[in-house]
């Protein structure tokens, strides 16, 4: 393999390259620069609210169950993305006492229909809001099915230290006891809290605050569906007060430069199972995938024929080993010789988030396996 020699050095060099490649103390670059790193903090100096003034929170709505309405004649069915941003705010008594809200409708779709175009629109809008000092924080209302992917995308492309909080609901707005209003109130409370700065994107549902990297949906219908299996939650909202149980990162991570337009480079997820054949790999290659994420069994493993196909595909694209298991880290060179085969391991990123990160890396022309592995270890 062309890449084997390069990757074989990774185990020895990781401790040094992590510091040199991602965690340096230089100021982040602005969006649109030619550097492959990322956009940094907005150029304008944030102004604190006037004494006694409420925090200013932009509420960007994208649809989802939180904006859903029941289907006539159905006991369980509903249509996502029916209520507007202003409708959602109007359904929360007293929310205007927490912050001055600025509603804006960015999209109105079920999150199964979330697109890269909407991701880019959201990211550009949030960066502009912060650059103009038009808000002290942003809340994004979103469907729960793909909220973790959108949160992780925004966490890697939005500059500055102001909070970005995503909220959704497991029950539609017309349900007997909708959870959306309480979740929106909690999200606004978090976004308005001074201690929320510097924590990147967060997801808030059921009075629990999760970081974008680890949060994942674990139940089809329960309001307590979101957990952070590897690191635990960031904090909690309790009767209007915010309590963080983790400290923010000591420094701002560089953010990726936003691509000019969608689509992002194609990355396919290949799902491993008993009796698996290499057809999924061949299909991804045949359809022009620039990267492949393996949702492997156990520690990111799969059938030998599939490993062989991934190794053959690795000369022209990046292959990342993740796992379909709900928690834990994929260990490098444990069951599979990643150095020899030229594979990248996902650390504790699940397959959907591994796909998002690989798309951003490829969009920023970061294809060297050692650098890709470094990014997976530090983001």
Automatic annotation (TrEMBL):
| InterPro entries cross-referenced by the UniProt entry | AsnASE_II, Asp/glu_Ase-like_sf, Asparaginase/glutaminase-like, Asparaginase/glutaminase_AS1, Asparaginase/glutaminase_AS2, Asparaginase_C, L-asparaginase_C, L-asparaginase_N
Biological process, per Gene Ontology: asparagine metabolic process
Q: Which residues bind substrate?
A: 111, 144-145
Domain named Asparaginase/glutaminase C-terminal is located at 266-376
Task: State the Gene Ontology terms under molecular function.
Answer: asparaginase activity
Q: Which UniProt keywords apply?
A: Hydrolase, Signal
Q: Kindly identify the residues recorded as the active site.
A: 65 (o-isoaspartyl threonine intermediate), 65, 144
Q: Recorded E.C. number(s)?
A: 3.5.1.1
* Region (Disordered), start-end ranges: 29-52
State where composition is biased (Polar residues).
31-44
Signal peptide bounds: 1-20
Pfam family for this entry, one: Asparaginase
Question: Which reaction is the catalytic activity of this chain?
Answer: L-asparagine + H2O = L-aspartate + NH4(+)
Top-level taxon in the UniProt lineage: Bacteria
Domain (L-asparaginase N-terminal) ranges: 56-248
User: Which family would the database say this protein is a member of?
Assistant: Belongs to the asparaginase 1 family.
Name recorded for this polypeptide: asparaginase
């Amino acid at each position: 393999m062309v890449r084997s020699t390069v990757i074989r050095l990774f185990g020895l060099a990781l401790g040094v390259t992590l510091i040199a490649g991602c965690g340096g103390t230089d100021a982040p670059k602005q969006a649109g620069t030619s550097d492959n790193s990322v956009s940094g903090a907005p150029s304008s100096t944030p102004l604190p609210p006037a004494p006694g003034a409420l925090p200013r929170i932009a509420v960007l709505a994208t649809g989802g169950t939180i904006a859903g309405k029941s289907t006539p004649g159905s006991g369980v069915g509903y249509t996502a993305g029916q209520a507007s941003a202003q409708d959602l705010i109007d359904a929360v008594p007293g929310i205007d006492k927490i912050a001055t809200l600025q509603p804006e409708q960015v999209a109105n779709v079920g999150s199964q229909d979330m697109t890269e175009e909407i991701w880019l629109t959201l990211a550009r809008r949030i960066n502009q809001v912060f650059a103009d000092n038009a808000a002290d924080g942003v809340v994004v209302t979103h469907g729960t099915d793909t909220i973790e992917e959108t949160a992780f995308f925004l966490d890697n492309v939005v500059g500055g230290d102001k909070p970005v909080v995503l909220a959704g609901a497991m029950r539609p707005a017309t349900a007997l006891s909708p959870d959306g209003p309480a979740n929106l109130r909690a999200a606004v409370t978090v976004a308005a809290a001074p201690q929320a700065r510097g924590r990147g994107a967060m997801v808030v549902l059921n009075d629990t605050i999760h970081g974008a990297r680890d949060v994942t949906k674990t139940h089809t219908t329960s309001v307590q569906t979101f957990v952070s299996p590897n690191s635990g939650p960031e904090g909690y909202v309790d009767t209007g007060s915010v309590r963080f149980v983790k400290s923010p990162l000591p420094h701002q991570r560089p953010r990726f430069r936003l691509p000019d337009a969608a689509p992002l480079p194609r990355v396919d997820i290949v799902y491993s199972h008993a009796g698996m054949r290499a057809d999924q790999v061949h299909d991804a290659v045949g359809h022009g995938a620039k990267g492949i994420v393996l949702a492997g069994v156990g520690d990111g493993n799969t059938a030998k024929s599939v490993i062989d196909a991934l190794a053959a595909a690795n000369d022209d694209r990046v292959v990342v080993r993740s796992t379909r298991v709900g928690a834990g880290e994929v260990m490098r060179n444990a069951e599979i010789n990643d150095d020899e085969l030229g594979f990248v391991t996902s650390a504790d990123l699940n397959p959907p988030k591994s796909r998002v990160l690989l798309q951003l890396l490829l969009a920023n022309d970061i294809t060297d396996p050692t650098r890709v592995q470094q990014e997976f270890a530090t983001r």
